[in-house]
Amino acid sequence: MSKTYAKAAAPVFENVNFNIQKGEFVCIIGHSGCGKTTILNVLAGLDIASTGHVIMDGREVAGPSLQRGVVFQGHALMPWLSVERNIAFAIESRWPDWSRKKVRDHGQQMIDLVGLTGVEQRKPAELSGGMKQRVGIARAFAIQPKMLLLDEPFGALDALTRGTIQDELVNIVRRTQQTVFMITHDVDEAILLADRILLMSNGPRAVIAEMVINTLPADRTRHNMHHDPQFYRIRNHLVDFLVQRSRRYTTGELARPQQPLELRPGLNPDSETNVIH
Questions:
Q1: Are the CB atoms for 133 and 165 separated by under 8 Å?
Q2: Which domains are delineated in the chain?
């Protein structure tokens, strides 16, 4: 698919083509202006691609749906509602026939899941930034979406809070086998969370140039992944792309692939032997 905002303008991105398997966690990384958030909005049904289509479970995405939960960088909570009621609103939208008790019990499960037990009656103004984001994550999980879409949800948080919520997200996703598509600028975050990492060249006319498979063990944690030699091969590959190759794909120094190169970490992307067919 591609996206153009004006008839005479160059597309923000073009020839974007990828798939996400059920239960897979995919992160996308690229410089500002390459269209990452637009891609997420198209997946969510909040925007429309200029060309191309998004297919989910055999059906074209034609608008917003409770099948896809979205968590933005801004928490987007309703300030006049408590934590409990912010989550209950989403549950009631998903299952309007549920009893109050069933809504409350399901909401409490989500609150407990993200570590907010005891603050159910607080309003957003009474919460820290990290707690607000936990409410947003709980609300998204509460509707049991087929896909969870995360737009840099931890970008505004301090490092300690960010790490804590990353750990909670890892545990929840592994427990529920949730399918996730996430935008991040944090290379270490992508390595911790993702099964695959999509790398976008610089805009305009950005493409998903490379698709890196995360070969670290599935049970990795923030505290142990740095001790695995593979971590540095993956990290160096991602950083080198952001510093060097993302620009070279745009300027034409590297051939722009019609399909992303699927690569193992630590390999030279200019070599055809690294492409997995």
A1: yes
A2: 1-67+146-266 (3.40.50.300), 78-144 (no CATH)
